[in-house]
């Protein structure tokens, strides 16, 4: 399984550490990561993977709830969606 995680919110310390910890707790591996601060807003995109099959609804709910604790919006999407969009 391969997925794309995006994080957006007002910049503050600890966002990368918190999200990376949550990713590890859910049994996912960070394959690639990019983050930046635009004006006062934090943005991050990560490609994650796992050898195990995961329920995206459950992952989405976990990240959404966790994002609320950091006051950021976290979204996860299957990388297969992006592959399908560009192979039409």
Describe the structure.
Helix 1 (15-25) packs antiparallel against helix 2 (56-70). The two termini are 21 Å apart. The protein has three helices and four strands. It has helices at 15-25, 56-70, 79-85; strands at 2-10, 29-38, 41-49, 72-78. A four-stranded antiparallel sheet has the order 2-3-1-4. It is α+β, with helices and mostly antiparallel strands. It has a single domain, classed as ACT domain (Alpha-Beta Plaits), CATH 3.30.70. The model has no long low-confidence stretch (mean pLDDT 94). InterPro entries: ACT-like_dom_sf, ACT_dom, UPF0237/GcvR_regulator, UPF0237_ACT. Homodimer. Residues 4-77 form the ACT domain.
> What is the alpha-carbon Rg in Å?
13 Å
Classify the fold: give the CATH topology: Alpha-Beta Plaits
- Which strand order does the major sheet show? 2-3-1-4
| Helix-strand makeup class | alpha+beta
Domain ACT: 4-77
Family: Belongs to the UPF0237 family.
Subunit structure: Homodimer.
Pfam family, one: ACT_6
């Amino acid at each position: 399984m391969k997925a794309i995680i995006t994080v957006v919110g007002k910049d503050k310390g600890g966002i990368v550490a918190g999200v990376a910890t949550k990713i590890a707790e859910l049994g996912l591996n960070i394959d690639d990561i990019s983050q930046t601060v635009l004006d006062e807003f934090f943005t991050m995109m990560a490609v994650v993977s796992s050898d195990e099959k995961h329920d995206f609804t459950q992952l989405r709910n976990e990240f959404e709830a966790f994002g609320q604790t950091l006051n950021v919006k976290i979204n996860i999407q299957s990388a297969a969606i992006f592959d399908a969009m560009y192979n039409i």
